């Protein structure tokens, strides 16, 4: 039971970080989280230690646990790694993606666009992340998933911060539309070019978000 409570707190806090409810530099109030989940502070503290191990939070001597601020070097490295992974994936996606998966991407883009119109930031992040998840899964490779499993949460976190920048969500959806068009044509060269451009846009939008890295 104690383990379940710890993971309940872990998932709750992690979701708040990844969906940008808690922003880099924000203090985490253990008592508030414990109260909202109707649990004691002990599993909350254990959850925070797990998240500290994943470099999502850090313990400040004066403030207690806070959401980490990424250094510009870390951000650059994460985007570089993502660039390598996604460009490597392009020919596999072109070769293996199915028509039902392409239809999923079409529906995803439509839902994401509707979320932008509603200014529903939570769902914008969800659909933006889902778009890339569909692409990853279309490769149908356990080795690929095992390789990127430890990075997916970081990629989603950076994506949420970039989408928070002015015009970030709209630009990302426009990129996804173009990528989808290339996919339908099975045009690997064009998809690789658009994927690289999409990541460049994301990196620029991340940099425009205020107060998110040192």
Characterise the protein shown here.
Strands 1-2 form a two-stranded antiparallel sheet. The protein folds into two domains: 2-67, Winged helix-like DNA-binding domain superfamily/Winged helix DNA-binding domain (Arc Repressor Mutant, subunit A, Orthogonal Bundle), CATH 1.10.10; 72-208, Four Helix Bundle (Hemerythrin (Met), subunit A), CATH 1.20.120. Helices cover 74% and strands 4% of the residues. It has ten helices and two strands; from the N terminus they run H-H-H-E-E-H-H-H-H-H-H-H. The model has no long low-confidence stretch (mean pLDDT 92). The protein starts with a helix and ends in a 6-residue tail after the last helix. The chain has 214 residues and is mostly helical. A hairpin with a 3-residue loop joins strand 1 (57-60) and strand 2 (64-67). The chain is elongated and about 55 Å long.
Choose one word for the global shape.
elongated
Give the biggest beta sheet: 2 strands, antiparallel
Task: Walk across the major sheet and give the strand order.
Answer: 1-2
Give the helices and strands as they follow along the chain. Answer: HHHEEHHHHHHH
Give a brief outline of the structure:
This protein is mostly helical.
Q: What's the helix and strand layout?
A:
Blueprint: H1 2-18, H2 30-37, H3 41-53, E1 57-60, E2 64-67, H4 72-96, H5 99-118, H6 121-138, H7 142-148, H8 152-164, H9 168-184, H10 188-208
Antiparallel strand pairs: 1-2
